[in-house]
Fold this sequence. Notes:
The chain contains six helices and no strands. It has about 130 residues and is an all-alpha fold.
Amino acid sequence: MYASALLRDPAATYRQVDVAGRTATADGPALVQLLYEELVAALRAAAHAAEHRQYRIKSDRVTRATAILFALEAGLDFDRGADVSVTLARLYAGARTTVLDAAMGDDPAPFRDTATTLAEIAGAWRQARAA
Length: 131
């Protein structure tokens, strides 16, 4: 089964192995950073797929993006994060709504706009971790 999946989509198989390898040794903040990277990549891929009417790929990427947004929200610590956690929860919920609404059409702009916003947050997260 693994070999047939590898032959069918080697790039996807590589990404799965890469993500599995990076998550095996990552701490909490590194996992959040990885989720942001994967989320932005999924949204950009959904935009490309929407633009080229590749509906299966768009659906796969929308599903991945939505799952990651739920995972990010589930990881929020409202006791320690207070207002920041509330703001991020609203952002994630809004992003989910935008992504799901965009999934119904062929306009790549909502995916790209959401990816840009989340890439900015990912950059801030990366800087905070480096400090």
